[in-house]
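Quick note —
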Amino acid sequence: MKPIACYVTGREALGGTGGTEELLARIRAAVDAGADWVQIRERELSARDLLALAKSAVAAAGGKARVLVNDRLDVALAAGAAGVHLRGDSVPAGEAIRWLRAGHAPPDFLVGASCHSLDDARQAEAAGAGYIFFGPVFETPAKKKFGPPQGLARLAEVCRAVRIPAIAIGGIDSTNAAQCLRAGAWGIAAIRLFQELDGPALAAAVAQVHSAR
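Predicted structure written out below.
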C-alpha cells in the first residue's frame, strides 16, 4: 500500500481572502497532484456552509480522493463524504462507531481520531477507529496548543503500539515526510505543504511522499 498523502484544509492559512472558492481551488489542485485524502477542517463555518463546502469538495474530488469532514458526523454523512475525523472533544469514537455500524452509514465509511499521546492512540484503536492522526510531530503554528512537538521517536513508538494506520501530522513538509514514513507512519497529513506549493511543485512533493517508503 502506498503511503497516504492527506490535505488538511485551513482557510485561515491561505493568503488573500481565504474564501470558499479559493479553498475549493486548493482542493482541486491537491487532488490533481495526487492527494489521497482531503480532510475538511473549517471549524468556524456554520453547519449549512460546511455542508455546502463538503458537498463541493466531494464533487471536486471526483472519486479520486477520499473526503473526510472534521468533527461533524452529520455533515459528513449528508455530504456523501468518505468519513469523519474526530477531535478529542468530538463525539466519542466508540459511540459514533457503534451508531454507524447499526446501519447508518456505508460499510467503508471511515472514522478517524486525533491523538496526542500513546494512551490516546490505544484508546482510539480499542474504540474501533479506522485510523489515527498522531502529532504534532514537528513544530508548527497550527498545533502549538497541543504542546511541544512529539518527535520521530514518539511517532515510531505509537506506530509500533497500534495496528491501525497512524498518519503523522504537524509540521510535515517535503523535507521531512520521508522521516515520518520510515518511523512507521502510514502516511502524512499537512496544511502548508498543500497550500504553499502549486502545480508541478505540489505534484512532485506528493509523488515524493508516495515513493518514500
